[in-house]
């Protein structure tokens, strides 16, 4: 299971090892085994059987959504390759996760039959039951909970890789759907008020990477998280773009970069603030951009911290946080020497200054920014982040003065610390002061496949009658163990409880306290052992009918077709939802089949959007299930501009008045909750514990793939210094622990780790660990001000200190 | 003449292992066996780094049969099971293989695997290209340069599936083929040149 198995060879050792230890991983016997008659058997014949092909859109959680061509022989998926139906050939893509489905679909850890629990919750003891009994039991328990405790006592959530294009049952019975997800929007919380709530996604195509002079990969590792999207970055590298990666770990992306900044975990904002300091002190900012596109000249009342706004004229948009209309901001006009509305065409606004109006001391936002930056020093930034002062200054120089420049942020990584909003807010300032936005080769956001890489389709969404809708979600799922709530019964499609919450001991104790919990899943995931009833879902390659999901990906509309029958006793999500809905007599409100759903989604779409002309159900099937949108192609490079932001004034708004009372009107630095150098807790738990993507998984998905298991299991990467200090070598079982819990994993001693920092691929199923699992040590702290942010407080999975010892 | 070969761009190779699994799938390679591996140079574990922190580097080395012009395996094979075919590929006639593994000892690239036991398959059915001949206990096996696909005029599966377009396949005897041009222009090298095997798989940065 360890990386040692897929052992690497130096040039020298691969000479030395010729002979006895040849390439075959299975070649474990000594050379020289005797020949016998048996080994002279003739080779087996070729495969026989009728072949057909099928096409479908694959994974969405790597944010790619490749169309795959599958060869099906004897009703088994035997071969998976890039689609031959993509109009835009650069989107004819695949990676190991698509190919590996050949093993993953048929993995031994698939859930095969409906089951009910016979042991204690958590023990994983089940017996097979019929679908009828399983469905009846779930319905009875959900109904009972709602009768006893009210509608809001039932929690239903669909998580990763469930049939996410519909979610009927939760609405039919007004269930609580769990509120904020708390996943990977920490920086987005900090960027949103400045550039709009969706600004964490780039508004330009990542195929523009090669047009940038400088790219900063900020806590983003596309080369391992979404391999298919790493081509534009490598194209840029070959074109001579200077790439800098800021990451605690020497990631795949860091290894391909010109420069790697091994930032201390949870301190990325200190680097960005150091850059801001250097940019302002050296006058490297772009005044023209700041005046035209940002709130830098807007006026703020120094005494109250309130922005100075019109009482009569309303700004074009409501605020991002609060969704309330606000007055239009004022700027100081240097011609009339008076405040005027921000969009006054004849005014010449001041960028800096302080004036008295009606007894108020008004200053520009930029003046406040400069005053704030006067309170920090480069040496502080360097000490906090672990990155040398001069390196920070050089990066600032490169970013501000050697454009066009892109900041490509990861969704994950730096988001998983409580102070991630400070990072997002700081980055917004960096972009606003330098104007590296809205022009060819310049931009900000996650260049991840969402956003503006490809045109998107217009589809109808199946809407239930008005009386059917989600119930209230007064407490986010991840807070349910900690905050009073009325949940007594739960049904999850996929493993919500261990994937979408930290501190698993708390969460699973709470799950154990529920009256009832049922799970619909594909594989024996970590939460399965805690369920009372387990339903086996089929994969996206299987269906009761020929077609399945209709999706919009990579500028193409894709209808999954040519499906194989559900394996074992599994069923599709749609049929499972229909069986459940029937228990309330409501199944007729749902589509009967995926065909009906797909037809509905497409019917009349062209009337709403002429781009959909000709993309009908029948046309799709006639085209193998794939049709391109008209703009799709090599030249699709949208002009995402630096205007029309979803902010009140439609410009980049840097001063966060709603946080001024909490001291965060500007991104005043604060330590993460647990991961910081001076934390006294480090005496007991001296190592930072971080997690992230591996090419072998998306979150926990693909954990059951036995091909991947040949290479990869629950392994803890640690720096040689840290391993040596604890007498640990590669392959050892090690216990990772803190005050929240512990687990045992296999040690991999890897030079790619910063000393003092550990890394594991994100969670996998508990059954693959010798003891416990990774979520036992993760953090459940909440950022209090996060409750007033657009995406709510985020789960600080990486904001974690631990100690490690040999198990 | 046609002499199929390949050039691999190590700058573009991100070590994603897609080619390794594409090969395993295409050729129905058994459990715990790979014809094509992506090694991390110099490290103790996969995805390790070289150098002293924080001045690190990492280079991946995709490695399979090098389809040598002067194959050491061929010379070592006592039965003629290993042969050089008309397209310049090194192939194995499994019916002639007696399982002596002399070829494996001779190959300086550790490119071959051996079926010590009846091969086990996960999943437990015949996956992969239906044209690919299955191997049984007692025979050696290795990359065929996707003989079945290249005979049909298709690229090897590893080339088709590489998410980074890091692999270029073509005819080395055609000076105008992309692979021939890249080898010249990018000063591509071969592995263990001193062995005199004259590989038809090239590497460049």
Automatic annotation (TrEMBL), chain A:
Residues 1-33 form the signal peptide. It comes from the Bacteria. GO terms for molecular function: iron-sulfur cluster binding; metal ion binding; molybdopterin cofactor binding; oxidoreductase activity. The keyword Metal-binding applies. Residues 687-766 form the Molybdopterin dinucleotide-binding domain. InterPro entries: Asp_de-COase-like_dom_sf, MoPterin_dinucl-bd_dom, Mopterin_OxRdtase, Prok_Mopterin_Oxidored, TAT_signal. Keywords: Iron, Iron-sulfur, Metal-binding, Oxidoreductase, Signal. Residues 110-581 form the Molybdopterin oxidoreductase domain. Belongs to the prokaryotic molybdopterin-containing oxidoreductase family. This is Tat (Twin-arginine translocation) pathway signal sequence. It comes from Adlercreutzia caecimuris B7.
From TrEMBL, chain B:
PROSITE patterns: 4FE4S_FER_1, 4FE4S_FER_2. Gene3D superfamilies: 3.30.70.20. GO terms for molecular function: 4 iron, 4 sulfur cluster binding; metal ion binding. Keywords: 4Fe-4S, Iron, Iron-sulfur, Metal-binding. Pfam families: Fer4_11. SUPFAM superfamilies: 4Fe-4S ferredoxins. Residues 4-34, 88-117 form the 4Fe-4S ferredoxin-type domain. It comes from the Bacteria. This is 4Fe-4S ferredoxin-type domain-containing protein. It comes from Adlercreutzia caecimuris B7. The lineage of its organism: Bacteria, Bacillati, Actinomycetota, Coriobacteriia, Eggerthellales.
């Amino acid at each position: 299971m360890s990386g040692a198995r897929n052992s690497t060879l130096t040039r020298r050792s691969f000479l030395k090892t010729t002979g006895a230890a040849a390439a075959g991983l299975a070649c474990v016997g000594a050379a020289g085994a005797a020949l016998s008659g048996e080994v002279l058997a003739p080779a087996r014949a070729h495969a026989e059987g009728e072949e057909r092909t099928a096409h479908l859109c694959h994974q969405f959680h790597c944010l790619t959504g490749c169309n795959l061509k599958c060869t099906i022989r004897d009703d088994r998926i035997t071969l998976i390759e890039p689609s031959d139906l993509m109009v835009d050939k650069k989107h004819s893509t695949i990676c190991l996760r698509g190919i590996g489905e050949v093993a993953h679909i048929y993995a031994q850890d698939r859930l095969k039959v409906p089951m009910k629990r016979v042991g204690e919750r958590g023990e994983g003891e089940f017996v097979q039951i019929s679908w009828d009994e399983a469905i009846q039991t779930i319905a009875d328990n959900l109904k009972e909970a709602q009768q006893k405790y009210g509608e809001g006592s039932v929690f239903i959530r669909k998580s990763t890789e469930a049939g996410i294009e519909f979610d009927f049952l939760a609405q039919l019975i007004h269930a609580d759907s769990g509120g904020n997800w708390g996943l990977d929007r920490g920086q987005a919380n900090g960027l949103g008020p400045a550039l709009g709530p969706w600004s964490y996604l780039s508004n330009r195509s990542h195929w523009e990477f090669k047009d940038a002079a400088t790219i900063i990969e900020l806590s983003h590792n596309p080369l391992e998280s979404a391999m298919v999207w790493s081509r534009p970055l490598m194209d840029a590298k070959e074109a001579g773009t200077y790439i800098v990666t800021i990451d605690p770990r020497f990631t795949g992306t860091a290894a391909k970069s010109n420069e790697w900044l091994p930032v201390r975990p949870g301190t990325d904002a200190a680097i960005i603030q150091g850059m801001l300091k250097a940019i302002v002190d050296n006058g490297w900012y772009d005044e023209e951009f700041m005046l035209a596109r940002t709130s830098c000249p807007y006026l703020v009342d120094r005494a109250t911290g309130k922005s100075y706004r019109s009482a009569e004229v309303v700004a074009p948009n409501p605020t991002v946080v609060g969704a309330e209309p606000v007055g239009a901001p004022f700027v100081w006009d240097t011609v009339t020497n008076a405040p005027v509305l921000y969009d006054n065409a004849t005014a010449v606004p001041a960028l800096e200054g302080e004036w008295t109006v009606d007894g108020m001391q008004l200053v520009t936002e930029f003046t406040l920014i400069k005053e704030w930056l006067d309170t920090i020093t480069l040496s502080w930034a360097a000490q906090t982040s672990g990155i040398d002062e001069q390196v920070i200054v050089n990066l600032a120089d490169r970013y501000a003065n050697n454009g066009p420049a892109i900041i490509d942020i990861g969704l994950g990584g730096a988001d998983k610390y409580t102070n991630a909003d400070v990072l997002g807010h700081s980055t917004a300032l960096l972009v606003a002061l330098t104007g590296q936005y809205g022009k060819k080769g310049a931009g900000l956001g996650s260049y991840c496949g969402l956003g503006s890489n490809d045109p998107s389709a217009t589809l109808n969404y199946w809407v239930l009658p008005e009386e059917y809708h989600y119930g209230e979600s007064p407490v986010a799922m991840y807070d349910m163990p900690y905050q009073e709530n009325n949940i007594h019964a739960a049904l999850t499609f996929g493993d919500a409880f261990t994937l979408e919450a930290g501190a698993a001991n708390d969460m699973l104790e709470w799950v154990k306290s529920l009256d009832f919990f049922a799970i619909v899943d594909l594989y024996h995931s970590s939460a399965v052992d805690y369920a009372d009833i387990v339903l086996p879902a089929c994969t996206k390659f299987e269906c009761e009918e020929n077609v399945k999901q209709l999706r919009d990906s990579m500028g193409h509309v894709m209808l999954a077709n040519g499906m194989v029958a559900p394996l074992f006793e599994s069923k599709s999500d749609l049929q499972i939802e229909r069986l459940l809905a029937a228990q309330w007599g409501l199944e007729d409100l749902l589509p009967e089949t995926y065909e009906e759903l797909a037809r509905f989604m497409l019917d009349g779409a062209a009337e709403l959007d002429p781009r959909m002309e000709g993309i009908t159900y029948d046309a799709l099937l006639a085209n193998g299930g794939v049709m391109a949108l008209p703009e799709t192609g090599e030249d699709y490079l949208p002009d995402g501009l630096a205007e029309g932001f979803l902010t009140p004034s439609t410009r980049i708004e840097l001063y966060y008045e709603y946080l001024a009372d909490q001291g965060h009107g500007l991104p005043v630095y604060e330590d993460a909750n647990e991961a910081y150098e001076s934390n006294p807790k480090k005496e007991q738990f001296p190592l930072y514990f971080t997690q992230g993507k591996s090419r072998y998984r998306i979150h926990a998905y693909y954990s059951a793939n036995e091909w991947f298991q040949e290479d990869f299991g629950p392994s803890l990467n640690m720096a040689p210094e840290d391993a040596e200090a604890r007498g640990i070598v590669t392959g050892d079982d090690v216990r990772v622990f803190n005050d929240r819990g512990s687990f045992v994993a296999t040690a991999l001693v890897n030079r790619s780790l910063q000393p003092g920092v550990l890394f594991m691929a994100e969670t996998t199923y508990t059954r693959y660990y010798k003891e416990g699992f990774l979520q036992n040590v993760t953090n459940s702290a909440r950022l209090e001000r996060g409750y007033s942010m657009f995406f709510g407080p985020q789960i600080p999975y990486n904001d974690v200190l631990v100690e490690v010892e040999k198990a | 003449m046609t002499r199929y070969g390949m050039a691999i761009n190590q700058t573009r190779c991100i070590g994603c292992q897609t080619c390794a699994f594409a090969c395993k799938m295409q050729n129905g390679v058994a459990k715990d066996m790979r014809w094509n591996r992506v090694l991390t140079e110099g490290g103790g574990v996969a995805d390790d780094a070289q150098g002293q922190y924080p001045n690190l580097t990492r280079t991946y080395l995709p490695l399979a049969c090098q389809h040598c012009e002067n194959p050491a395996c061929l010379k070592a094979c006592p039965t003629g099971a290993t042969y050089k075919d008309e397209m310049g590929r090194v192939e194995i006639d499994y019916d002639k293989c007696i399982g002596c593994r002399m070829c494996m000892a001779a190959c300086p690239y550790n490119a071959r695997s051996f079926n010590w036991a009846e091969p086990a398959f996960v999943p437990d059915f015949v996956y992969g290209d239906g044209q690919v001949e299955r191997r049984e206990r007692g025979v050696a096996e290795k990359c065929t340069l996707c003989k079945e696909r290249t005979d049909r005029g298709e690229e090897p599966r590893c080339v088709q599936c590489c998410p980074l377009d890091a692999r270029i396949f073509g005819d080395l005897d055609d000076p105008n083929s992309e692979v021939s041009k890249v080898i010249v222009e990018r000063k591509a090298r071969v592995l263990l040149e001193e062995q005199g095997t004259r590989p038809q798989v090239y590497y460049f940065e």
